[in-house]
């Protein structure tokens, strides 16, 4: 018998969520085949079988688990699955309901007397403790704790109120797990990195039809983000500090490839998957990477390996009403770019006539310990040249 243990997937989470068993309880599996999917604060990770065997589940989908915890067993050939005692409902969190209820949520149900009918009324597929218990909610018991009574619950989406509005902490909103992770990164960035910001106006009137022509020629969706990712990657040798990794406040380690992280947010939280070796890859490959990122974000199925290893970041802002956006600099990086949406601008020609051009705001946030304003302007200027004269191969 081999125990299936939860590996340490990242340094940010003390526990993960078991979101799917890809192999059924009692199913024969081969080495390397997928067994389960675990969700971290930013990604989904697949566990695979170390060897051949018959799988026995020890946890129910929706349970939280921690690194090192045994969540299943692989029985060897000849071992009788019936002789391996099945885990009890209390061990697995199993129940007769069809929705997924995490182990902390089940404990909250028992603690506060929340019924299954009330939980189902939330209309969620996965119910977590935060869906049932608003932050800082007092609960019943001894020692002067406040006793609470649940009001009747109407079918709704939201959290189960445990106290009347005038007795609780007044309509607190708890961010999603992904947003809490974003908050941690933002706090650390502002705490550790003395950042500055420079923004440059870029005329993309010629880049837009060029991108449309490349889309048709390459049969891959090309836009300004794709052009900018490639142009950024090609600047690695010319501006090595912009891609370097800080070692301390005075030194940084040179990067050998340009690993460009690109923000993706389709409503389920912000992700920053990484386009690998962006400076040496053709435009159609970069385009297919970005298209794949958007599709993956819709399903929320990013793997940890999709999100790590970036050495510069590009944040995308598609709302034409947004003039300038200042990105944070990720801890472990030195620079972050921001790309605004194209907007019309009336300009005067040398002949005194007026024409309408399409322009963007291209910004750069940078760690001022390593990059100065003049360097930032030169870097942005190189990108501006690449976008204003697309296809010439020069950056």
UniProtKB/TrEMBL annotation:
InterPro entries for the chain: 2-oxoA_DH_lipoyl-BS, 2-oxoacid_DH_actylTfrase, 2-oxoacid_DH_E2_comp, Biotin_lipoyl, CAT-like_dom_sf, Single_hybrid_motif
Coiled coil residues, start to end: none
Listed SUPFAM superfamilies: CoA-dependent acyltransferases (SSF52777), Single hybrid motif (SSF51230)
EC number(s) given by UniProt: 2.3.1.-
CDD domains named in the record: lipoyl_domain
Domain Lipoyl-binding per the UniProt entry, residue ranges: 3-74
Keywords, ordered alphabetically: Acyltransferase, Lipoyl, Transferase
Domain 2-oxoacid dehydrogenase acyltransferase catalytic stretches: 173-390
Necessary cofactors: (R)-lipoate
Similarity comment text for this entry: Belongs to the 2-oxoacid dehydrogenase family.
Protein name: Dihydrolipoamide acetyltransferase component of pyruvate dehydrogenase complex
Organism from which the protein derives: Streptosporangium amethystogenes subsp. fukuiense
